[in-house]
From TrEMBL:
This is Uncharacterized protein. The keyword Repeat applies. Residues 300-320 have a biased composition (Polar residues). The keyword Nucleotide-binding does not apply. Residues 297-320 are annotated as: Disordered.
């Protein structure tokens, strides 16, 4: 298995995307790292911490903590503003290539949709909760939103006045990721409580959830589970297989049809905070960061307020 690891940022990484011949990583320090096929890294600074990215044509669109979405043109390396402007940080950003849309979701309980080719004001959708996770399925022309009140809304781009489906997820705590199945007939979602669930739109009796990314510990002669957040969901080559990754420093490959774990890749150097899989060359990109800041008890706790070691990215050829 061919593997290569590089250091890319002194801060926590927040997303990974393949864009043309580049692998793009975003960071809380407000930088984009562009990595080429020879593993050379180019850093470009934006206006605020970056929470997510998406790709549309030759542009990288970044969700910023200042409530805006900025575009980086890969050809000119110039950054520019888009019409999107939220009142609070933008948690998620997705793209719809057929409609030439950028879709952003924010903690201000809105989703905005904008065509970056024009400077018109974006369409604004009010939601019942803060947006924590989103995904777009272009073949069915839908997008899905996971929110702070445990609500899941599915929208059709052809009729945005109301969701085509709304439900409450089965998690007790915050949703981290939501991903449509490749066939669009359902979705996967993950949470900070070490769980993943499968929800089918027309076959609900086959919905299920399972625990993962948990570690067995023995404390005072009693066995307990250490629950780790599931930070990533990413589909593999087939319709039914997908990766999860978490703060336990491991990646798992699952098959949702057989309900079994296919393989586990464990003992990475740090928590795994983002994944990206390139279907063309079968390369898995793995973002690792020191996310021990999650254990801070409050603003006065200064022991873990900065990563102890720089963030790294590992790329693996999964078919070699």
């Amino acid at each position: 298995m061919n593997e290569y690891t590089i250091s890319v940022s002194p801060d926590v990484l927040t997303s990974l995307r393949y864009a043309s011949d580049w692998l793009v990583a975003s960071s809380l320090d407000g930088s984009l790292s562009l990595i080429d096929a020879s593993h050379k890294v180019e850093h470009i600074a934006l206006d605020a911490p970056i929470l997510d990215t998406t790709v549309l044509d030759s542009g990288i669109y970044s969700a910023l903590a200042n409530g805006t979405v900025q575009k980086l043109d890969l050809r000119s390396r110039k950054a520019s503003n888009t019409p999107i402007a939220h009142n609070l940080p933008v948690q998620c950003v997705e793209s719809h290539a057929k409609r030439n849309l950028i879709i952003s979701g924010s903690w201000d309980k809105t989703v905005q949709l904008a065509d970056p080719r024009v400077l018109e004001q974006p369409s604004v959708m009010d939601l019942p909760g803060k947006v924590y996770a989103m995904d777009v399925h272009q073949q069915t022309d839908r997008f899905i939103v996971g929110m702070s009140n445990r609500q899941i809304h599915v929208y059709d781009f052809r009729k945005l006045d109301r969701p085509v489906s709304s439900m409450e997820n089965g998690f007790r705590f915050q949703t981290t990721k939501v991903r449509f199945l490749p066939n669009g007939r359902g979705f996967l979602q993950s949470s900070i409580e070490g769980k993943v669930s499968l929800d089918l739109f027309e076959d609900a009796e086959n919905n299920y959830a399972f625990k993962c990314h948990r570690q067995k510990l023995v404390i005072e002669n009693e066995s307990v589970d250490l629950v780790n957040p599931v930070n990533c969901l990413e589909f593999f080559d087939t319709e039914s297989r997908f990766f999860t990754a978490g703060s336990d420093r491991s990646i798992c490959l699952w098959d949702y049809k057989t309900k079994k774990r296919v393989k586990q890749y464990a003992n990475f150097e740090m928590s795994i905070v983002a994944l990206a899989y390139n279907q063309d060359n079968h390369q898995l990109a793995i973002a690792m960061s020191d996310d021990s800041y999650k254990n801070m008890t409050g603003l006065d706790d200064q022991t873990n307020n900065k990563p102890a070691i720089p963030s790294k990215i590992t790329t693996r050829n999964m078919h070699s």
